[in-house]
Specification:
Blueprint: H1 4-18, E1 35-36, E2 42-46, H2 51-56, H3 62-74, E3 83-86, H4 100-117, E4 121-125, H5 127-133, H6 139-142, E5 147-149, E6 154-159, H7 162-167, H8 172-180, H9 182-192
Parallel strand pairs: 2-3, 2-4, 4-6
Antiparallel strand pairs: 1-3, 5-6
Helix pairs in contact: 1-4
The structure holds iron/sulfur cluster.
């Protein structure tokens, strides 16, 4: 599969792996640009890599990844049919929260991933990614309550972080209910886009949405800094 989108997203990943824009690069084993289907309808955004993610260079491995896969299975998806990334691409030491200046330094990578993929739905996992789209919002109040941006023809769904649900299993019914609402939400956005948005597939069996364009109607290029 070769198209502009693949080239741009591969380019972003390559830059992330060499990035030294914030101090998190000093402690990383591997940067974690993100993984999944470049043509996915759903972009999941977590907080930052943990121990196992840093070891493997992949997002959401270990128990949180297993839990995310379990939730995806509720709606008939596998992790290969979505794209998963984080607000910071390198592991904060001792799994601490990412700092504001680290999130700011890493933001252009996520901005470019989002613009290039142009997903139907952005699902945030935890408060740091939620704050990108729901500034000042509280995860306990906003979890499972999507917002549809009619202009962008895109939905945003705030979700608990899987690790939070694993720590507090009483959140599980709310998490499952939010995931189960995703297919109807996707259908609504597909209709807004004219009903021809793709079914997500990494196997090549779907038609991808058009690459994002800038205001001069050119494909978005990787021009981060
Ligand atoms: S967290 Fe982001 S900005 Fe910081 S070094 Fe890693 S890739 Fe660069």
């Amino acid at each position: 599969m070769t198209d502009d989108r693949v080239a741009v997203l591969d380019g972003i990943a390559a830059q992330v792996r060499l990035c030294t824009l914030c101090d998190l690069y000093k402690g990383r084993t591997h940067a974690v640009p993100g993984a999944g289907d470049y043509h996915a309808e759903i972009l999941f955004i977590g907080e930052g890599p943990g121990f196992y993610e840093d070891q493997k260079g992949l997002p959401f491995v270990g128990r949180s990844g297993d839990y995310l896969e379990k939730m995806l299975a509720l709606i008939g998806y596998t992790r290969d049919q979505v794209f998963i990334t984080n607000v910071v691409k390198c592991r904060p030491p001792e799994n601490r929260d990412p700092l504001p200046d680290e999130i700011t330094a890493c933001k252009p990578y996520l901005d470019s991933q989002e613009a290039t993929m142009n997903p139907l739905l952005i699902a945030t996992l935890g408060r740091f990614s939620m704050n990108r789209y729901f500034p000042g919002g509280k995860i306990t109040q906003l979890h499972g309550k999507p917002r549809i941006d009619a202009e962008a023809k895109r939905a945003y769904m705030p979700l608990f972080h899987p690790a939070a649900v694993l720590r507090n299993p009483t959140l599980e019914p709310q998490m499952a209910a939010a995931f189960k609402s995703i297919p109807a939400l996707l259908e609504k956005v597909r209709e807004m886009r004219g009903g021809n948005a793709p079914a997500s597939s990494s196997s090549g069996g779907s038609t991808p949405p058009p690459p994002s364009k800038d205001k001069d109607d050119k494909p978005i290029q990787l021009s981060l800094f």
